[in-house]
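User: Before I run my own analysis I want an independent prediction to cross-check against. Here's the chain; please return only the C-alpha cells and, at the end, one sentence I can use as a sanity check.
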Amino acid sequence: MFNSFLRLSRFKKRVISLFVDFFALSFALWASFALRLDVALWEPNRAQLLISLLTVVFTLGVFVRLGLYRAVIRYMSDRAFITIITGVAASTLLLVLLSYGLNVFVPRSVPVIYAALALIFVGGSRMSMRMLVQYSSGRDKERVAIIGAGKTGVQLAKALQQGDEYHPVMFISLIPANHKTLIVGLPAFALSHLEEAVHSHRVERLLLAVDADMDVNRRELLTQLEKLELPVQTVPSFSEVIAGQARINDIRDLEIEDLLGRDPVRPDNAQVASSLFDRSVMVTGAGGSIGSELCRQIIRHQPKCLVLFEQSEFALYAIERELQQINLVEGLNVCVHPLLGSVVHRRRCEAVMRSFGVQTVYHAAAYKHVPLVEHNVIEGVQNNVFGTLHAAEAAVAAGVELFVLISTDKAVRSTNVMGASKRMAELVLQGLAQRQSATAFSMVRFGNVLGSSGSVVPLFRDQISSGGPVTVTHPDIIRYFMTIPEASQLVLQAGSMGQGGEVFVLDMGEPVKIADLARKMMHLMGRRERTAEQPDGEIELVFSGLRPGEKLFEELLIGDDPQGTAHPRIMMAREVCMTWPEVADTIRQLQYASHAFDCEGVVSILKTAPTGFAPNGGVEDLVWNLNPRPLVADKAGKAGTVDKAGTDLKSVPRAGKEKLGQI
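Assistant: C-alpha cells:
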C-alpha cells in the first residue's frame, strides 16, 4: 500500500498533503484550547470556530505561497522546515489579531501552545514520511560503511541517502574521540572497533572517504580493511568535485597508488618547471599510457608549445582533446600540435622537430609487451631499436638540446627480445652521446607501471570482477612497481638533470610478489581465494607458468655501483657502453638481418652485443616458426633479398642513405 502511495502522481500527492495539513492544523487549534482549558472534549463556539477556520485556511495559503507543497518529501531540505516555521509563525500572529479584532475569547497561552503543536504535526508528519520513504528504499540498497567522518564522508553520506544504490549505515572515524557519536544521523565508531561494528551493522561494502588534508597512513588502513574481506572502494577528491570532473557519489575502485606498498616519489617541481617553462617540447608515443601522462604533466608547466607525435589516430585524437580541455579549464594557453607519424620514419621526425623548433624530446614510443614482442621479433626491433635511432638522429640534425628515452628494468640482463631491444636502444643513445655533444641524451629506467596498458592490475581487476580465475605465471615471480604519474614525474626529473649519456634509475623500494598483489586485490574487492583449506572461496588463483622471455625477478642496475643524484630517490647507473663505431656495426647487422626477416640472426646479434641478453628459450616469432629460414639472399648475401611476393627489397628506394639506418 505504501508503495502504491509513492507511485501516485505529483499532483495527487500535493492534494493529499494539503488535506493532511488541514486536519493537522485544525487538530492543533482544538488541542491547544483543550489543553489550556483542561477540557477533554472541548467544544468551540461559533466565533471560535470561525477564527479557527480562517487561521487554518490562511496558513495553508501561506504554505502554498512559500512553496512548501512543491518540496519533494524524500529530498526535503532544511529550507522546507524554515518554510513551515515561517508559515506557523504567520498563522499564530493571525490567530492573535483575529481574536482581538473580532473580540473572540482566546486565552493568551493558546497561540503559544498552537504554534508548538502545529510545528510538531506539520513538520513531524513530513519527517516521519521521509523516514518511511528512506527506510522503504533502503531495504533494497547495499549496506555500506563510510571510512572517514570528515567533510568528504558527510557529503558522501548525504549523497548516498538520496541515491538508489547504496544505504549508508555507519561511519568509521579515524578520530578516536568520535567513537559512539552520531554524525548526520548515522552512528560513528572508532577504527579500533572496526570489525565488531561492521559485523553488527551487516555492512556489505566499505567506502573510503578520507579528507585529503587528514594525516593517515593509507597502507596501514588498507591492511586493516583487507582482513574484513569486503569490497573496498573510494570516492573522488574534493578538488575533482569542485572542478566538475566528478560527483561526490561517483564510487570507483581503489586508486592504483594504494596498491603500491610504498610512499610515492615526489619530484623537485622547481627544477622540472625551469626545464620545461616556455620551451618547445615533443613527446613521441604521446597517446600511450606513459606518453599521455607525460603530456598531462608537461602542459601544466606551460611550455611554449607541446608537439604530440603518435602513430595511432584514435589515441592522438583522445589525448589532444583532453589536453585542450586542460588548456581551457586551467587557462594555460599552451599551443598543442597533434601530429600523426612513426618514429621509424627519420625524415618525418626531423621535419617535425625543425618546423616547431623542438628543444626537448621525450621518447616514449615503443613496443613494451613482452609476449607480443617475442611473437613479433622484427617489428619489435624495428620500433624499439631503429625507431630510437631514427628519432635520435633526427633530434641531432634538428638541433634538439635534450633527448630523454623511456627505458625499462627488463633491459637489465634481459631474457626476452623486448628487454634486449630496449637495452640496445640505450646503447645507441650512449654511442650517439659520444659521437657529438650538441644534443644531450639521457635514459630513464623504471619497473612495471601500475595501470599502464598491459599492466597486471587492470587484468586482475577484470578477472576478479568476472568471477575468476586469476592467472599468475609463477608463485614466486616478483616485480618492481610504480604508478603512471610517478613514472612520468621521474622522466621529467631526469630530463632536467641529464647532461649526456646517463642512465637514471628509481629507488623503488622492495619488489612486490605478484601472487600477493593478486590476493590483496581479491580481498579489497570483497572476494575470497578458493584453496584446498577454503573450498568455498569465490576466486581461484591459477599459476599458468612463465611465458616466453619472462624472468622470475627483474633488476634495475647492471652494475653494483650506482651514483647518487640531487634527488634522494633517483640514482645514476654506471654501466658498460659501446663506442659509436661498435654501435654502427651492430645496427648495420641488425638492419641486414631484419630486411632478410632472419629472426634467429636478430636474436644472435642482440646476444653478441653487450646487452646481457640471455634468452630462456628458442625464437618465438609466430611467422618465423611457420617458415624458419631467412628470405632468399642475393649473391652478396646482404639486404638485397626477394620475399615471397617477389619484391626485391634492395630495389626499394630509401631516403637519407647518407646516414646509418635511415629508412
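Sanity check: The two ends are 78 Å apart (CA to CA).
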